[in-house]
Amino acid sequence: MKFSKIIWISILILLSCKKESETLLTPEKIFIGQGPEDIVLDIQNGTTRILASCNERVKNKPPFSEIVALNLETNQRTLLTRKSEPAFLKFNPHGFYLQIVNGKKLLYIVNHYKDDSKINSILVYELNGDEMTFKKEVRSDLMLSPNEVCALPNGSFYFTNDKGSDDLIFEQLFNKSGGSVVYCDTDGNCRYAEEKLAFPNGLEYKNQQLFLATTRNYGLFQYDILDDGTLTNKTKISSINGMDNIRWNNENLTVSVHPDEIAFVKHSTDEKFHSPSWTYLIDIQNKTAKLLYKNGGYDISGGSTSIEVNGYLYISQVYGNYLLKVKLKD
User: How far is CA 23 from CA 18, 19, 38, 308, 323, in A?
Assistant: First the structure.
């Protein structure tokens, strides 16, 4: 083979490889703070930012319990200032939700006291810029193991109990469907809306409908909401197993998935174990799913929430300290 021909073949191969690499997912790690389990979008002064609910869950590490704002244009990180909190409050956020109620931005936050009291609650703050002002705390005997919360425009809300008690071993062996969805009205009166669920997890709301992602029910469910908060007309719109939190992507939903539950449990006990992280786009109308991102846990382990913004996917995680930014294929 002539030398010139070899050169041209080499160039073509290089160009082909370059074109292929440009279509691949190219992840970027953005430091946000320990344990960014849940994320939501917020528009502040015309700038899109992500709010992250951060809480260090690894024992023997320095505590970190904050709501952090990430400017998507500059990657600047800002810890939101909390005001007017009662002295007794122990702030350990988990799932959270941003809703406009009577013209005000309100954050509804699942809170775990993480002490001998074993108190769980929903905290409500008014969000103004980089400040969040405490408004109220809702407690209920039904807050057994709250995971995610979803507020309605009238100020009422739903939350998921991922299990029926705080005894994980008992739940795994004897009460695998001990989870529930609870409805709380604007006065803080709470009642069961759905029971006997296998690790219910993410929640979303739109147009008088509630959407529920479950980890072990092999189901993403849709409900109609009656005026009193009752859920009716339950419909399964996806059968993916291992689902975590869900967020809107136009008229569809993105859902983070733990495809290997055993690996996720191992990861929760030792960061050296990798937990695969997948993200799907769920077409609500056609009840179909498209895989947006798939990783064996090396770029991010235990991915818990995924949000798409301008062609990029932002993925949070339960135990690490960064968000993963992924350029999606066209």
Answer: 9, 7, 28, 17, 21
Candidates 184, 185, 144, 150; CA nearest to 168 is: 144
The helix/strand count (H/E) of the chain reads as 3, 25
Cα–Cα distance, 35 to 317 (Å, whole number): 7
pLDDT tens digits, the chain, 330 residues: what are they? 444 444 443 433 344 443 333 334 579 999 999 999 999 999 988 899 999 999 999 888 899 999 999 999 999 999 999 999 999 999 999 999 999 999 999 999 999 998 888 899 999 999 999 999 999 999 999 999 999 999 999 999 999 999 987 776 677 666 778 899 999 999 999 999 999 999 999 999 999 999 999 998 889 999 999 999 999 999 999 999 999 999 999 999 999 999 988 888 788 777 788 999 999 999 999 999 999 999 999 999 999 999 999 999 999 999 999 999 999 987
d(CA 252, CA 17): 33
What is the value of pTM for the model shown? 0.90
Hunting for tokens 């062996």 — which residue is that? 173
DSSP 16: H
**CB of 324 within 8 A of CB of 27?**
yes
Nearest Cα residue to 215 out of 272, 256, 269, 158: 256
